[in-house]
Amino acid sequence: MKRRLPFVAILAAFVLSSCSTSNQTKTLAAIDAIPAKHLENYSFDPLTPLISRIKPAPEFALSFLRTFDRNDSEAAYVPSDSQLQLIGEYLKLLPPTRLQLLQYRLVAIYFIDHMKESGVTDWVYDKDHKIFATLYVNPRTLTTNISDWLTYKESSCFASDNSSVAIHVDAGSEYLAFLYVLLHETTHVVDYVTHVTPFVEPYVGVFEGIKATNTTFTDHVWASYGRPADGFDFADRSKLTFFGIGKAPTVPLSRVPQLYHWLAQTPFVTLYAAQSWAEDLADCFMWYYLTQKLGQPFTIKILSASHELDLYTSAPSQQNTERLKVLETLSH
Ligand SMILES: [Zn+2]
After folding, report:
1. DSSP 3-state assignment of 74?
2. Edge-to-edge order in the sheet of strand 166-170
3. How many domains is the chain built from?
4. DSSP secondary-structure letter at 25?
5. What is the pLDDT of residues 77-132, one digit of tens each?
6. Are 140 and 24 contacting, i.e. CB atoms less than 8 angstroms apart?
7. What angle (nearest 5°) sits at the alpha carbon of residue 329, between those of residues 324 and 232?
8. Domain span at residue 253?
9. Handedness of CA 279, 50, 118, 174 (dihedral sign)
10. Has residue 285 been placed in a domain?
11. How many angstroms separate the alpha carbon of residue 305 from the centre of ligand 1?
12. Does residue 4 lie within any of the structural domains?
């Protein structure tokens, strides 16, 4: 996960209303007033090993996350020595160019108890307006298998009804959900810094003065940040919620076969990826790296009394050549 709109209620009113200079000024002032946005408030040394940046979240960062998540029960979690060792091993699985970028741009990794989502990547800036990032991670991803977590995540979109439909994501049994967090969230960090998509979230677009024209990755697939291009949108897409954040799911389970049938006609590898171009990139990279570089499966099966739809055996054919080139480059 990266972004849901709005990330702080006060910003939403400014950013979503218009792009006038006055509103941009208000947006920038609102961002500037958040302590968690300022690099100088963190203890950060780009020369230290990434593993040493795992720290208990400082109060200002925790407070920001609680507001963002609307979840006051969130608290700092300290990984055990064996978990730290595991995290170190997982970090080594990332592509070398990504590790290099994280070395200079990833300020801290905070594990947070009672988070509902898998993880959150936030952006931070220095006095020269250079962008850095912080990572908040759900410690349950250190003890849950990747397939079980992704099944839980996709299933969380739907409200139970009398149907016998179930979703099952098979991403292998070799890795923990933490690998999913690393692949997905660090893609947002790369995106913040290198703009694989025009911007990871609209606020960054305002902050950096970026116009929302498409990039190689988003071209022909996205009409705008959260609106797919013609032919790739589908009913109920914008009604989906994940992990029960914001509000309980409203789309009934009986809609699952139809939704995944539509999804299979798009380049989006998960329902989550269909939320915005930023989530499309993060999940698409996760899928590509997991299957092409780490040799894991990635299929989503829809199980019901009447049929089984094996969706993602055709996922590569839904990606255009240019997107595949971008994913390959990000994998080095
Ligand atoms: Zn995300």
Report:
1. coil
2. 166-170, 299-303, 308-310
3. 1
4. H
5. 999 999 999 999 999 999 999 999 999 999 999 999 999 999 999 999 999 999 99
6. no
7. 30
8. 9-330
9. positive
10. yes
11. 33
12. no
For 307-317, the pLDDT digits (tens) are 666 565 556 67
- Cβ-count burial 113-143 (b if 16+ within 10 Å, e if not): eebbbbbbbbbbbeeeeebbbbbbbbbbbbe
CA 320 / ligand 1 centre spacing (Å):
22
Give the three-class secondary structure for 124. strand
Which two tokens mark 116? Answer: 């509902």
**Residue 28 placed within a domain:** yes
**Does residue 2 lie in a domain region?**
no
How many A from CA of 276 to the centre of ligand 1? 9
Q: Which two tokens stand for residue 113?
A: 């108890």
User: Of all helices (H) and strands (E), which one includes residue 158?
Assistant: strand 158-159
Q: How far is the CA of 200 from the centre of ligand 1 (A)?
A: 9
Three-state secondary structure along 256-314? Answer: HHHHHHHHCCCCCCCCHHHHCHHHHHHHHHHHHHHHHHCCCCCEEEEECCCCEEECHHH
